[in-house]
Amino acid sequence: MNMCRIQRFSFLLLILVLIAGCAQTGKTTTSGADQDFLTNSYNGLKVSAVSVDGAMKTIASLYTSGKISEDVKAQVITAYDKFKLAYADSTSKLSVYSITPTDATKTAATTAIANVGIQVAAIIALSVVQ
Questions:
Q1: Which of 4, 108, 112, 113 has the greatest number of C-beta atoms within 10 Å?
Q2: pLDDT digits 0-9 by tens, 33-60
Q3: Can you name the CATH fold of 3-128?
Q4: What is the 3-state secondary structure (H, E, C) of 31-56?
Q5: Cα–Cα distance for residue pair 13/29, rounded to 1 Å
Q6: Which of 12, 9, 7, 74 is nearest to 48 (CA)?
């Protein structure tokens, strides 16, 4: 495994650890929602967005230099579309949880955030495969 792939793999693991850290508990809002959970979740989503932005820039550079095929480019576009949908779904579910804080809405938000992490991993993996 060359050094570039090792760095990308390490970056991927770091991102997954950061996203997984979203499910902490603590202070509550006036609606009864767990404020630490909300803060950590939104911070995790910000990390995800920055990670995807970096990965997409890397992939674009690889494509421009001819190191990514049209097939991989199509896979990247599909993965990015899935990421955008997962991201929107997670912010929507966090909003619902903040207004209606129940175990069910918190679980739905946590599941949606985990899906964002999966989509981030898929995009980063496409930049490592090369």
A1: 113
A2: 889 999 999 999 999 999 999 999 989 9
A3: Four Helix Bundle (Hemerythrin (Met), subunit A) (1.20.120)
A4: CCCEHHHHHHHHHHHHHHHHHHHHHH
A5: 32
A6: 12
